[in-house]
Amino acid sequence: LQMLEQQVVGGEQAANKDLKEKRQRRKKYADERRMQLVAALQQSNEDSSEWVLLNVYDSIQEEVRAKSKLLEKMQKKAAETEIKDLQSEFELEKIDYLSTIRRLERDLMLFQQLLDQVQSLVRRDCNYSNLEKIKRQSVWDEETGCWKIPEPVIEKTHLP
């Protein structure tokens, strides 16, 4: 009975030394491969660990599905990166525009205060004594990109 057990447990060729050595080599190779996979998983991050695991496939359909998922994941990451880049670029432009607006508002306030101070010094008989009238008479020239304002004129009144 023991003799039959030993033959059945090892298979038909339990006594064949070549097969035993071949099984041991396969087992050793499988253990080494498992150890390499464990080491790779410990050293790598989440994405590359999935890549290591995806290299072992049972069929072509599995490989296609796995690589399709990986491609979708990479495309999604690329799209997210592009979105983040565009958002940061937009944010920088927005900050630049806001600083330009603030600077222009400060300049406008300076010029307005200067005009208020200088207006009291302009003679009453000059057409520049009334700033609202000058604003109405001024015209924007598209070709030169500047305002055309009326020339200063002093209107002397002659008494009879």
Automatic annotation (TrEMBL):
Keywords: Coiled coil. It comes from Antrostomus carolinensis (Chuck-will's-widow). This is Kinesin-like KIF17. Residues 57-121 form a coiled coil. It comes from the Eukaryota.
